[in-house]
Design brief:
Order of helices and strands: HEHEEHEEE
Oligomer: single chain
Number of helices: 3
CATH topology: Alpha-Beta Plaits
Largest sheet: 6 strands, antiparallel
Shape: globular
Number of strands: 6
CATH architecture: 2-Layer Sandwich
Radius of gyration: 13 Å
Helix content: 25-40%
CATH class: Alpha Beta
Distance between the termini: 11 Å
Length: 111
């Protein structure tokens, strides 16, 4: 399954073909996709995104999952009642707006 554990196989293959290193994924209702995308692109205007069941962002400038502004992601999660996953090939950071106000970080093979 690799890093694209939550999305369809077709979307996974599409993202792999554009050399995905770091991704930021928001899991929210489709009613919120447009506002969420607009908000994220305000801070990361060079980002590309794909909409599957979730909204998935990629930005070639990100070299580490620590390059992502987690405070921005938390704000978006609360505003759009979304979950957020920031990942690379080995690690994933998860944030759930309706649970404890903290990030969970683990190796992908621990899932």
């Amino acid at each position: 399954m690799g890093w694209c554990y939550k999305i369809s196989r077709d979307k996974c293959n599409l993202l792999k073909n554009i050399n995905m290193k770091i991704i930021v994924e928001f899991d929210c209702s489709s009613d919120n996709h447009d506002g969420l995308i607009e908000r994220f692109l305000m801070d990361y205007p060079e980002s590309n995104y794909v909409i599957d069941e979730n909204v998935i962002f990629k930005n070639d400038e990100w070299e580490s999952i620590d390059d992502i502004d987690t405070f921005l992601c938390e704000e978006i999660c609360h505003e759009y009642e979304s979950y957020c996953y920031i990942s690379d090939d080995n690690t994933i950071k998860e944030y759930y707006y309706d649970e404890e106000d903290e990030w969970f970080e683990k190796l992908k093979n621990e899932r």
